[in-house]
Amino acid sequence: MASSAAPVLVLENEPERLRDWAGAMWHFRHLLAMLSRAQFHVRYKRASFGVAWAVGLPLIQAAVLTIVFEKLVRVSGGLHFGAYVLSGVLAWSYFSQTVAPGSTAIVEGSSLTDKVWFPRAILPATTVFANLPGLAVSMAFLVVALPVLGVPLGIRVLLLPLACALLIAFTLALVEVLAALHVYFRDVRFLVQAALVVWFYVTPIAYPKALLKGLATWIDVNPLTGIVALFHLATVGNEANWQRPLLFALAWTAVLVIAAVEAHRRRDRLFVDLL
Amino acid sequence: MNDVVLSLEGVSKRYVKLDEKAMLLRSLLPFARPARSELWALRDVDLVVRQGETVGLIGRNGAGKTTLLRLLAGVTRPSAGRVTVAGRIAPLISVGVGFHPEMSGRENVYVNGMLLGLSSKQISERLDDIVSFAELERFIDTPVKFYSSGMYMRLGFSVAISADPDVLLVDEVLAVGDLAFQLRCFDRMRQIQERGATILLVSHSMQAIRNLCPRAVVLREGRVEYDGEVSDAIGRHHELMSADVAAGAVRTAVDVEHAVVTGGARIVDRRLLSGGHVVHHATVDETLTFEARVTFDRSVDSPQLFFSVLRDDGRLAYSLFTEPEQRYQSYAAGDVADVRVRFNCRLGGGTYKLVLQVLTSDGRQMLEPDDAGLLFFVAPAPGSAGLTHLGAEITVDGQAVSDYGEFTLGRRQAP
User: Fold this and answer.
1) What value of ipTM does the predicted structure carry?
2) Given A30, A116, A187, which is nearest B75 (Cβ)?
3) Which CATH number, 3.30.200.20, 1.10.540.10, 3.10.310.30, 2.70.50.60, labels domain B257-379?
4) Domain span including residue A102
5) Shortest CA distance from A266: residue in chain B
6) Which pick of A54, A222, A237, B396 has the fewest CB atoms within 10 Å?
7) What pLDDT does residue B175 have?
């Protein structure tokens, strides 16, 4: 029974030590996998087209945006505009589909959390991982669609996994911070929804960045600009000035990762008091 | 070897209730601090539980029992003091913890098992046991949203006990499920006990506490009021309850559903008597008298009376309605009526609530439900247990063997 090998839990009114918190995250990694799988299955359970919707919705969005911006606004600027929009929209779609539910995950998961303990960071992370199959299908579709849209496949497609990795890391860190904030400020849910509407248009997805002229400098600060730039690099190729936004994206991700770890390490066992 | 499994040293837990609506605004404004009110759920609690002990936690709602279990489960952390838990802990708190309604019973067993710290391999090994103990073989692939609350509970309990916990935390779950399942739960908990595990049991059922726990802790307003032998603890608990009832601090609900409460009467004095003395404890077969003085705040013609006895789990043990056709007396505002109910205490051992409700002749309640109950405790007859006192006797070959006055087992004679 309570042998010397048994785990000993000591709780005081102090933040978790980084080592303990990270150790707990590692210990519960299978739970994360299990919950992610469960969420994935539940989402597509009774939809005949299943995970194909992860591609279907952004595809429709990309088609509409391409028609509107290329034919009506005439912004294409000598690009393979369809491929340009599609690659950005697929990345965006993963981001927005994850951030909205992920930022409320701790509060929504309160029935799981008020009796047994596991690191609360598991809950937002679950959404991030549950959407990974959708992202994978999107990327596979993208690679197949590129030649159809007139873009020959090149070695640069190998950048896609890197672009995805950065996208996932940024999304995960952001969602963890938002979910922690949402415990304290329930307005976060609505702020996120509002922010997503604006965010889409301040990210060069449906238009080339060159269109913005002087404003492009400011758009570079947006972390998604750098991430989307990586997707553009991997697909249509000729993306100009991708270095600066990419640096911003990396910096944002690093800051958010630190903020997320600190927030959860300090507050993890206090969230439940406010649920 | 140090065999202390659970220890609380000077533990306090403060909940801060924030004014939720204004929170974002207030924290953005420079000088406005969020409006907050504090609640101390636990105050300076010291508790040591050693390996193999089974300890009952008793106290009124809001006494801090659940907070204590939550601290031990590691769900929340203390505001002051230190909580130490040595060993793997399986909380068994309320029904269907962490069940995902869309997922099948089987999938939920995996999620639940992992929440309790089992690996998927361990769960696979135990799956058959879990399912058969929960008696859910036929429904294990059904989404749990189609489960009844009893099925939920059985599955939850089944997973929790299969986790081989060093420490089992039990919060009231045994109140759910049919009797047969409850008995098997008790059996299984005894097995866990015998294996040397430590159990902490929260229950409002003094019967369950008495059956399983040699030791009990009485909590009151977040402090340890008593810690020791179970009978003394239950006695202390009842004293506190009676005192609180007398002070009007206990809110009690009458189980007359959909009752229309109009008010208009108050009970100003209420007591239980035996042989002319006020009592809070009774023994079986004792003749008891419940007395209440009712003051009417408005005039009423032939009020009806409804006398009921509720068990501590809220079930009705007995009730008596006055004859509605019988006209007897009118009262004007300000009048006082003395009500006396004499009865024979043929109840099984346990805690009961005596409820007197006053109704108008067309059946509307005149007492606020909060104002209607008196708690008392019945000591069981030696050797007996159950819902009622039947006064049964057992004889073997003509010799009485259930007489605890001089208990001897009958010698079995050859036929």
Assistant:
1) 0.80
2) A116
3) 2.70.50.60
4) 18-274
5) B77
6) B396
7) 55
